[in-house]
Amino acid sequence: MNQLKWTQAGCAAAVLFAMMGMSALPGETAQPNDHPGTDKGRFIDAHVHYQDCKAGDLEKVADWMQANNVQRVINHPLRQSRAKDDKERAQQNENYKAFQGRIARFCIIFPDEVNSVDEAVVILEREKKAGAIGFGEHYGEVSKPQPGDKGLYFDDPKNMVLFAACAKVGLPVMFHMDRGRNLDEKGLPRLENVLKTYPNLILIAHSDWWKNLGDGTCDRLLQKYPNLYADLSCTVGRSAIGRDKIFAREFFIRNADKLLFGTDSGWWSLGQDKKPAPEFALIDELKLPKDVEDKICRGNAERLFWSKKLEKSATK
Q1: Kindly report the CA angle at 75 between 72 and 81, in degrees rounded to 5?
Q2: What pLDDT, on a 0 to 100 scale, did the predictor assign at position 279?
Q3: Contacts of 243 (CB under 8 A, 6+ apart)
């Protein structure tokens, strides 16, 4: 299944699970997301996929942000949306200049597009100079997969080239993981190998990583490795986060410093008939302590991506 269809299916499942019986916290009633749009935005959405290479593309994103009370977003290119030539890259750069401080972007390289760490570093340094603040969404697959192709294991040498390059350039990595891409085993030993090998590389977990909640792997890795974070997007339909509010609330409080709000929204989310991603409602339903909500919804992303201190240390 291609990336767009996979995301649409995942988010549709998320909505279904959100409607089908989250266990309620004692004495609590879910409240609507009714924070006014005049407060500069309640959320930083660390994971969206919007087209950005044509004039006017980001104006549509800004409208979506205002409608959903989002102050900042980080846009992740997919195969079908990344810049394909110098003309598109030039327009992309102009688009982001108009929204500097509000709409940021990651960049991607596919594992088969480079042959060495040095080659990847040249590309990533160019992207960082042009405004990229991270790498991803990293799928661990070739640039033009054929039907039946499987993605790479998470610590495949081709992936390790990209991880080493990101560590050198100082770009955090948002990674996708499922049964066909960035493969791993029970307990995620291959992910753990990368975390150990590149302790200064920030890795942000997404997708089927959340399916490892039940055996304690997610808790263990988040608490053991300072360089591992996780983004909340599409958790509602893929894990206990969507089925058990009590568990979800305790997990969020326990790992408050390591979680980033994200929705995995994209160009398919635009239009007045589109419902907001379920992660917006999830935050309201959990009724987190204010300091925890502030960290997850804004503070952790601000610290990771907009802290001048972090930026200086990453470029040394």
Answers
A1: 150
A2: 92
A3: 17, 21, 22, 23
Domain architecture of the chain: domains with CATH: 104-314 (3.20.20.140)
- The helix, strand and coil proportions of the chain, stated in percent and rounded to the nearest 5, come to 45, 15, 40
Question: What single-letter amino acid sits at 158?
Answer: K
For the chain, give the number of residues. Answer: 316
Helix 157-169, helix 117-129: angle, nearest 10: 40
Contact 205, 182 (CB under 8 A): no
The dihedrals phi and psi of 297, each to the nearest 5 degrees, come to -80, -20
- What lies within 8 Å, CB to CB, of 161 at 6+ separation is 111, 114, 116, 117, 120
pTM more than 0.70: yes
Average pLDDT across each block of 10 residues of the chain; the chain has 316 residues. List them in order. 43 39 37 38 93 92 93 92 89 94 95 97 97 95 86 96 98 94 96 98 94 94 98 78 91 98 90 83 95 97 79 43
Q: What is the strand order of the sheet 265-266 is part of?
A: 259-260, 228-231, 203-205, 173-175, 132-138, 103-107, 70-75, 43-49, 265-266
Rg (CA), the chain: 18
